[in-house]
Amino acid sequence: MSSKTRPVKVGSLIVGGGHRPPVQSMWKEPLRADSLGAVAERTRTLAALGCGILRFSTPDIAQAELLGALAAMVEIPLVADVHFDWRIALRCMDFPIAKVRVNPGNLGEPWKLREVVAKAADKGIPIRIGVNAGSLPKDLQEEPDRASAIVTAAEREIAALDALDFVNVIVSMKASGVEETVRANRVFSGRHDIPLHIGVTEAGPLVQGCVRSAVALYALLADGIGDTLRVSLSDEPENEVIAGQEIVALASGTRHGADIVSCPRCGRAGFDTHAFTERWRDRIYSIRKPITVAVMGCVVNGPGEARHADIGITGVGDKVIVFRKGEISRTCVPEDADIVFGEELAKL
Ligand code: SF4
After folding, report:
1. d(Cα 314, Cα 209) in Å, to the nearest integer?
2. In this structure, are residues 47 and 257 in contact, taking their beta carbons and an 8 Å threshold?
3. Does the beta carbon of 296 lie inside 6 Å of ligand 1?
4. What domains lie within the chain, and their CATH numbers?
């Protein structure tokens, strides 16, 4: 992981300075006063899965106030995503918001930026500048080298904050193309010590988005570039977090949570590995210990291939067995699989 960027405090976390990159996600609906409790609950699930930072769109003052109310209900650092209206950024900073994403260039007159920066400096709240390839300034839109245009756009935004002596900054530069995203971040990283939030934007639905993000983010993290990351998916935030955790685990060589080894299932299966894995997804990925959980359809590749697993489950004829380190610990009928597996898991 990167050690050359400067550390930036985001709520209770440090982003940059060589710290393990926190995985981020983004809430996908507008907040409503009558469902804040449910949002807080799901936010806690996301945190348990390994989400370190959660961002919310704040298109108006009402959303800013609801986000402020939510921030008082949860532990995880929350980020306000603001565009155009400086008053929304100011209102967000009345609450325990951990970071504001705002681009100086789209706030309008310079005095509006000065007000936002003064309040951020006063409250110790960092600003994330986010440049997306799809919304570059007009004069950069025809630039043939897209990666270079993205970096230039980011540097203009940084210069606007630098001019106000504000350096508590994180930058993201995202494109929907893997090559552009990787190159822009590499160029930027060679010039600046500002922490980078990395990600591929509009990456697509679950499978395509995970593949694109994994290719781009692994390449960057393996080079020591990237201080926090988001896997942007047309899918639920839980999957963004799980995908992000997996990328960080592979790139860093260290895993802070559970690893699932599951077979693809075939005609030999005596046990539905897909449904079981789906049912147990959140529970297993919420285990913050580096254990391996095996979910296998049959004995052909069951306990044998998954011998190293701390716990596993596999179909055997019309029965299911739960094993630990290759040794059978329980046998039951498939209908009792969840209960028996849960009891064994609780012993780890
Ligand atoms: S473990 Fe058994 S069910 Fe699963 S893919 Fe292998 S042979 Fe098929």
Report:
1. 30
2. no
3. yes
4. 8-252 (3.20.20.20), 259-346 (3.30.413.10)
- Does ligand 1 have an atom closer than 6 angstroms to the CB of 316? no
Neighbours of 218 (CB within 10 A): 17
**Ligand 1 atom 5: residue of nearest CA:** 265
- Give distance in angstroms: CA of 239 to centre of ligand 1: 25
Q: Residues 11-21: pLDDT tens digits?
A: 999 999 999 99
Rounded Cα–Cα distance for residues 35 and 54 (Å): 17
From ligand 1's centre to the CA of 64, what distance in Å?
50
Residue ranges of the chain with per-residue pLDDT less than 70: 1-3, 302-305
**DSSP-based three-state secondary structure for 56:** strand
What pLDDT is stored for residue 105 in this prediction?
Answer: 85
Longest dimension (CA), the chain: 73
Task: Tell me, in angstroms, the distance from the centre of ligand 1 to residue 261's CA.
Answer: 12
Do residues 130 and 174 make contact, with C-beta atoms less than 8 angstroms apart? yes
Q: Which of 260, 262, 266, 295 to mutate to test the pocket of ligand 1 (most atoms within 8 A of CB)?
A: 266
Q: Compute CA distances 41 → 54, 98, 219, 230, whole Å.
A: 13, 19, 34, 21
Contact 6, 195 (CB under 8 A): yes
Whose CA is closest to atom 6 on ligand 1? 301
Q: Ligand 1: which residue has its CA nearest to atom 8? A: 266
Q: How far is CA 290 from CA 51, 68, 142, 293, in A?
A: 16, 34, 47, 10
Q: Which atom of ligand 1 is nearest to the CA of 264?
A: 5
For residues 117 and 90, is the Cβ–Cβ distance under 8 A?
no
Q: Which residues of 238-250 are buried (b: 16+ CB within 10 A; e: fewer)?
A: bbbbbbbbbbbbe
CB contact at 8 A, 14 and 7: yes
pLDDT at 32: 98
Instruction: Give the mutation target among 273, 277, 299, 301 for probing the ligand 1 site: most ligand atoms within 8 A of CB.
Output: 301
pTM more than 0.70: yes
